[in-house]
Amino acid sequence: MAQTSVRAVAHHAPPQGFVRKYIFSVDHKVIGIQYLTLSLVAAFVGMALSWAMRVHLAWPDVRIPLLGWLSPAGAPGGVMTPEYYLSLMTMHGTIMAFFVLTAAPFAGFGNFMLPIHVGAADMAFPRLNMSSFWVTFVGFLLACATFFIPDGPPLSGWTAYAPLSAVGPVAGPGQGWGQNLWGLSIAMFCIASLLGALNFIVTTLDLRTKGLKLSRLPLATWGWFIDAWVSLLAFAVLLPTCLLLVLDRLGGTSFFIPGGLVFNDQLQPHSGGSPLLFQHLFWFFGHPEVYIIILPAFGIVSHIMPTFIRKPLVGGWKVITFSEIAVGTLSFVVWGHHMFVSGMSPYMAMVFSVPTLFITIPSIIAVLVWVFSLYGANIRFATPLLYSLGFISLFISGGIGGFFLAQPSTDSYLHATSFVVGHFHFTMGLSAIFATFAGFYYWFPKMFGRMMNEKLGKLHFWITFVGVYCIFMTMQLTGFAGAVRRYSALVDDFMIPLIPANRFMTVAALLTGAAQFIFLYNAIWSRFKGRKAPDNPWGATTLEWDTTSPPPFDNFGGRQLTVYHGPMEYDGEASVMQTSPEASVAGT
Amino acid sequence: MNQSELMIALSELAVATEHEIQMEESPYGIDKKKLGMWIFIVSDACTFGAFLFAYGYMRIGAPVWGTPFGFSSIMNGMVMTAVLLSSSLTMLAAVRAAQSGTKALAEKWLAVTMILGAVFAALHLREWFKLFGEGWRLFYNPTGGAQQFGATFFSVTGLHLTHVVSGIIALAFITRGYNQGHYDESHVETAGLYWHFVDLVWMFVFPLMYLMNAR
Q: Structure pTM?
């Protein structure tokens, strides 16, 4: 009988030499760590940008010398101009949404774990996998390069709304080459994501080891698999959107630019285009994108929780998985809820409002599954579980804001206020970050063969958890009070009373950000000095724990694995590995 | 499923790789290249869909769209369509020949497919240059209609032409590898899937971009 692992190894022999081993490696484990490292760097860059913005909002006169050095025009003497504030905001959103939230939980952990979860030796197309990472890497460099060109980064937001993004340098600083580089960077990210999604789907379907029916797939793998489908369809639309935007900017076309448009007293030589077309195309990608960010988080949390609550999730694999499939499917028919006040027909707003409220149903089912599973459980409060519970809390807190924004009547008031900013930071940004942390603390022993420090992990969790509530709950409340998003200064009468709240948020953001250095220290220290990790430190059941820490080059040392059980064989202290022919203890 | 298709399916089973035998419990144990190509096609169809959506949106939104294509352009398009459709047929013949092991015949059919693809591209470029000669640009409509005509026409057909040219290059690459023995009939079949997809897209592009714009 042939063996999947042996066959897959035949793709490529173990690499020789530093470059093939660690840089241009085709090994999915190295690529996964490369993605995670890229995301970590990107996350700290994005966080530094948010620090600069928050400090400016709270104390507009404070000089930030580094900014003055980075952009003498954008921040003369270290005090940023309103335009430069928008540039920082644009790059914060772009870097965080694409290079952190999309890259880390999906491409990072997915690359490392998915082939191991299915019992394969590597991805279905290892070379394609390597090129995915390097295209992403170049995309990230292009995004960062915008800081160092004379004009600075674009100021049109991560959504790059036309016509601001489409007319060129006349629209303001950064709208020349900054916006061009942005478009190129995102187009490259699209291509890399499409190739990655293709690889994930084929690997999950085609490289499963003997006995690993879809119903026995680990729940994290389900998350990545569903996510790959959503990515495949959504990024395939963002790519042409970027191309059309570039055509408008460089080819003189008018897809997104209406006639009679005047920018800086100059009549634009365009006619007949539609800014709404851009919003439709962008949000057809953009709304699934937030589910691209959150579905791996669903998967990772569902994967981690049974290990620490020592029982299967309520409803088994089916309820949570079908909720995810429903969320992924519905995510393609709700994009118009971003456009209630865009000038789109109000009837369309109603049409989009209904599925948006419907999509909360599978989301709530998923939340109920996680919460009900805790009932009567013998819970082990390790750091990965704390972060999973933190994820659930943040997802609920942010999700409730969604009800207000899903209805055109309330959205008309809340649109473009900081309520929206607080909402999406909770429900998409921080939820996914918390799931990523959960995954990081959970899989670190497997990835690096060392345990992370639990005490530091818990300290990191509690500061971060309390900190993000201080920042973003306050932000939602200021939104109710009418604080407009994207304003660089609080100077209007109705905004001035919000200055103390903004100072509170800024202090909380500085402290919460600083707490991330605890995590960084913990990760680096544990990598070299941590306690040696056993093969299965958490007493888990999935295939990654049935090999050494870290796994050998071909993942299982040439062993042929047969899967006999689903991934949630827990009953208190007792558990059965998926690969063990013993009798089931949980009846899954 | 008729009898001949059944025979083909059975013969495919007989030459199934070790991997597929190992995958007996998986309903999806098919050649990963083929599965990968299908999934690429799904994704690429979305990309074309976005372009065609933009075209529809522009067209419906324009007060005067204008329908500039005369008899000669439509005839040219008809010939292009016939050429591309025939190339799908020859591609099919190449896959059949490769699967039955007649390598030389398969290579001949692949060559014919590539030539038909090149003829299509040449006719297409001739059409483009004719339009350029009449003053059409990405951003300019010499007949005074919506300026989006050039933008949508050149970008949609340009995207399709890029696919055709990439297909010809891919086929050349596959044919060479097949000839030298690096590739087998499964590579020819996978390339064929792509080729048929590009052909299928044209069956949307031609009516939407040409016939709907006939004078």
A: 0.93
Whether residue B82 lies within 8 A of chain A, CB to CB, comes out as: no
Model confidence pLDDT, tens digit, residues A31-87:
999 999 999 999 999 999 999 999 999 999 999 999 999 999 999 999 999 999 999
Q: What end-to-end distance do the CA atoms of chain A give, in Å?
A: 28
Q: What is the dihedral of CA A360, A362, A368, A369, to 10 degrees?
A: -160
Structural domain containing residue A548: 30-258+270-575
| Separation between Cα atoms, residue A353 and residue A127, nearest integer Å | 43
If you average pLDDT over residues A492-515, what whole number do you get? Answer: 96
Structural tokens at position B80: 């292009």
pLDDT at A588 (0 to 100)? 63
Q: Do B39 and A202 touch (CB under 8 A)?
A: yes
In this prediction, residue A383 carries a pLDDT of 97
DSSP for A505-543 reads: HHHHHHHHHHHHHHHHHHHHHHHHHSPBP-S-TT---SG
Q: Is the pLDDT of residue A350 over 50?
A: yes
Q: For residues A509 and A17, give the distance between their C-alpha atoms in angstroms, rounded to a whole number.
A: 43
Per-residue pLDDT, B28: 54
User: Integer distance in angstroms from the first to the last C-alpha of chain B?
Assistant: 44
In this prediction, residue A12 has a pLDDT band, given cuts at 50, 70 and 90, of low
pLDDT tens figures, B146-156: 889 999 999 99
**CATH number of the domain where residue A277 is located:** 1.20.210.10
Write b or e for each residue in A265-296: b if 16 or more Cβ atoms lie within 10 A of its Cβ, otherwise e. eeebebbbbbbbbbbbbbbbbbbbbbbbbbbb
Q: What is the pLDDT of residues A173-202, one digit of tens each?
A: 999 999 999 999 999 999 999 999 999 999
B40 CB-contact burial (10 Å; exposed 0-12 / middle 13-18 / buried 19+): buried
Query: What are the CB-based long-range contacts (under 8 Å, 24+) for B84-91?
Result: B84/B116, B84/B117, B84/B120, B84/B164, B84/B199, B84/B202, B85/B199, B86/B116, B87/B112, B87/B113, B87/B116, B87/B117, B87/B120, B87/B195, B87/B199, B88/B195, B88/B196, B88/B199, B90/B116, B91/B192, B91/B195, B91/B196
Strands A574-575 and A262-263: what pairing? unpaired
The pLDDT of residue A14 is 72
Instruction: In whole angstroms, give the CA distance from residue B23 to residue B13.
Output: 12
Q: Model confidence at A18, in pLDDT bands (50, 70, 90)?
A: confident
Q: Which residues of B touch A260 (CB under 8 A)?
A: none
A247 touches chain B (CB under 8 A): yes
Distance from CA of B52 to the nearest CA of A (A): 10
Taking the Cβ of residue B139 and every Cβ of chain A, the question of whether any pair is shorter than 8 Å is answered with yes
User: What are A149-172's pLDDT values in tens digits?
Assistant: 988 999 999 999 999 999 999 999
The pLDDT score that the predictor gives to residue B12 is 45
Does residue A19 form part of some domain? no
How many domains is chain A built from? Answer: 1
* Each residue's pLDDT tens digit, A276-291: 999 999 999 999 999 9
Dist. CA B6–CA A2, nearest whole Å: 27
Q: Looking at the domain assignment, is residue A382 inside a domain?
A: yes
Domains of chain B are 1-30 (no CATH), 31-213 (1.20.120.80)
Give the tokens for residue A266: 């100059």
Task: Return d(Cα A1, Cα A20) in angstroms, integer.
Answer: 31
pLDDT at A110: 97
Question: Do the domain assignments include residue A566?
Answer: yes
Residue window 486-505, chain A: list those with CB within 8 Å of chain B.
none
In a domain, A13, yes or no: no
Cβ neighbours of residue A343 closer than 8 Å, sequence gap 6 or more:
A276
Q: Give dist(CA B108, CA B90) in Å, integer.
A: 9
**Chain A, nearest residue to B29 by Cα:** A206
Burial of A526 (0-12, 13-18, 19+ CB in 10 A): buried
